[in-house]
Write a sequence for this structure.
């Protein structure tokens, strides 16, 4: 009887578990769609140190919240909002920046 009760209660634990699971998925800044936000994670190893320093001066640093504001067609540069400023980044640069998107 105890084993039956244990299996019965164990089968219902998923129903009573109210905690939300947060999954972090790594993707590049270029992969953000219009209206999406993500947290900047890191720069690729082959990202130029000069570009890296300039991007950090503009607010693109680890932990910064980045939002994609405009996604034009035909591969044109996308507009990204960081720290209340909007910047235009080409695919070659934005694809070297890793972000973490939160899914709840």
């Amino acid at each position: 009887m105890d084993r039956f009760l244990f299996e019965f209660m164990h089968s219902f634990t998923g129903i009573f578990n109210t905690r939300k699971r947060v999954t972090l998925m790594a993707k590049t800044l270029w992969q953000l769609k219009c209206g999406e936000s993500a947290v900047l994670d890191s720069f690729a190893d082959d990202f130029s140190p000069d570009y890296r320093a300039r991007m950090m001066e503009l607010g693109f640093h680890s932990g910064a919240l980045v939002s994609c504001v405009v996604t034009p067609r035909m591969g044109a540069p996308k507009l990204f909002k960081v720290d209340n400023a909007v910047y235009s980044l080409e695919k070659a640069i934005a694809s070297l920046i890793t972000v973490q998107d939160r899914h709840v």
Summary: Residues 20-103 form a domain with the SH3 type barrels. fold (CATH 2.30.30.90). The beta strands are 23-28, 37-43, 65-70, 78-82, 85-89, 97-103. Residues 45 and 65 are 21 Å apart (CA to CA).
